[in-house]
Amino acid sequence: MKMNENKKGLIMEKQTITIYDVAREAAVSMATVSRVVNGNPNVKPATRKKVLEVIDRLDYRPNAVARGLASKKTTTVGVIIPDVTNVYFSSLARGIDDVATMYKYNIILANSDGNAQKEIQVLNTLLAKQVDGIIYMGNKISDELRVQFERSKTPIILAGSVDDKEKLGSVHIDYVAAVEEAISDLINHGNKKIAFISGPLNEPINSEYRLKGYKNVLAKNGIEFSSDLVFETDYSYHAGEILWPAIVSAGATAAFVGDDELAAGVLNGAQDAGVEVPADFEIVTSNNSKITEIVRPKLSSITQPLYDIGAVSMRFLTKLMNKEDVIEKTVELPYGYIKRSSTK
Amino acid sequence: MKMNENKKGLIMEKQTITIYDVAREAAVSMATVSRVVNGNPNVKPATRKKVLEVIDRLDYRPNAVARGLASKKTTTVGVIIPDVTNVYFSSLARGIDDVATMYKYNIILANSDGNAQKEIQVLNTLLAKQVDGIIYMGNKISDELRVQFERSKTPIILAGSVDDKEKLGSVHIDYVAAVEEAISDLINHGNKKIAFISGPLNEPINSEYRLKGYKNVLAKNGIEFSSDLVFETDYSYHAGEILWPAIVSAGATAAFVGDDELAAGVLNGAQDAGVEVPADFEIVTSNNSKITEIVRPKLSSITQPLYDIGAVSMRFLTKLMNKEDVIEKTVELPYGYIKRSSTK
DNA sequence: CTGTTAGCGCGTTCAA
DNA sequence: TTGAACGCGCTAACAG
């Protein structure tokens, strides 16, 4: 056997074994090799065996790039994520990757910081790389991004994110109802002045969903809405920690918080100021991440099946990539509410 | 202009614009288009301009797959990670991705759960996809994986992980010295019986590095080593939480912990048992992740530049992919120690 | 059941 | 400065 040799008979550097080498060694055509590699049943068991032996002996590994060019499918999907470092998103990502692996896909993960410009940049390189599908995570879809999404023939799913325009396929929970349930708990304990603490209100998830839920329950319970009780800040722990004085002056006796780290900040900020939680002040949060159980008292929280949202998104995407018919454009997963020690 | 039309003159579904379309529209050869796309200077400014206009008008986007096949470079690197959900690793991943983006690379992220079998599986699909390089994160390199690594012509770097065999390029801190410093603090406060709490001791980072550092300081300070004070468990919060009784019976008055979640568990477990931290018991931990500041009292910790470790790893990898000479196979980044309230 | 033949879209000589 | 032609490694008809 002499393969990949140059004129001087020396083994060359890039010793890549191709389907052609296998074909020659097994004394069949490359088409046949391709068939056994792709599990095509139209191959006589004997030849299949022979080919497999050669593949094994030569340690042949099909070149996915060539395959992608020929078949126009790369078996990789692009995942746009604001920040892997954020447990909320990484949980989704984990669900995505597991299901992707299950269906023989790989994911290209790209951080966007929720920055519109980066998102577009990333989308373009993803499309250039011919990904078979895209999963988008983020809290705000810019107009330009929306245009690109709609123009693209590549299937796209939003995971744990909402499209207020309701055009794109997405997987998430019923945020409005979830918030209503969480705040109901607070109201049932007699709280009348409940702070609404969230990230930027220009993000639909905060303004169109959570805040709406907040207003809904208040209305249902005959409590007047006051914008003084609405606190817009960023998602960090520190932002919550320094918020306490403002909460006090607003006269709130409880708070709904849209993010766990933020909630941990509020909790510790209150306690550092000598407040008893939940006796003097109650708190509910939104994502049930690990820190809800690490802080003391443990935080009552809305629960979201984050891993599942990611998993279902990816499953959804496989259907689209497979051109299967999907009935509903948006799938809503069940949420829950877990009562811990930050509420009475 | 009539491109991508079928016999009936209808625009076809897959309206992919190729370099060929651009060439025809600009009345040049595809070679020339290729040149301007790749920034080859040997193009007359006038033609370059003309081509760029057409590219813009047609919204042409070079097919990275075809490019990869022709050039044998995919500008994507594979990243093997135990679990994205773990902040320690996702911080590294973030650093990797940022630098990758900076150098026009994308990353394929694959979770391994630190499972030897999955790691090998993942490595193979990564190689099949012709990634230009690989970054490995994990606590234990199985023999088979090591063989595959060494046989592969694809550059590989370990990020935030150690290779006790010292064969592979890697980026990390001096774990031994860091542990020594952290424990010195404990010893300086008069502690004689210090618990060593870590993840699996079959992981070199725990047995070969951290435990060695532990033994070193003890020896330096004339304290006898006792295996009764060594606690091997897994990395979870819960594992730490239930460990307290065992720690008590061992008579420890302080503890070094190899993982933050684990440390948070130990901390809360102790406090739930009525112990005063740090008055009655001191704790230091290892990774300075966010939770060290969220728990009360806040945890004193070794600090590692996680983001930087990821970033430097990727930078390192770009050099290897670029076949540049690298002096040192392993780069050691500076660690630190931050004193908070879990120590006196 | 198997082989032949075209491309897939682009990079890259080699001439011109 | 430009173009023609070949090949990257593989899939997908189409024959046989």
From TrEMBL, chains A, B:
Which terms are listed as keywords in the entry?
A: Activator, DNA-binding, Repressor, Transcription, Transcription regulation
**Which molecular-function annotations from GO does this UniProt entry contain?**
DNA-binding transcription factor activity; transcription cis-regulatory region binding
| HTH lacI-type domain sequence ranges | 17-71
Q: Which Pfam families match?
A: LacI, Peripla_BP_1
Give the highest taxon in the source lineage.
Bacteria
- InterPro entries recorded: CcpA, HTH_LacI, Lambda_DNA-bd_dom_sf, Peripla_BP/Lac1_sug-bd_dom, Peripla_BP_I
| Job of this protein | Global transcriptional regulator of carbon catabolite repression (CCR) and carbon catabolite activation (CCA), which ensures optimal energy usage under diverse conditions.
Q: From the Swiss-Prot or TrEMBL record, give the protein name.
A: Catabolite control protein A
Q: What is the lineage of its organism?
A: Bacteria, Bacillati, Bacillota, Bacilli, Lactobacillales
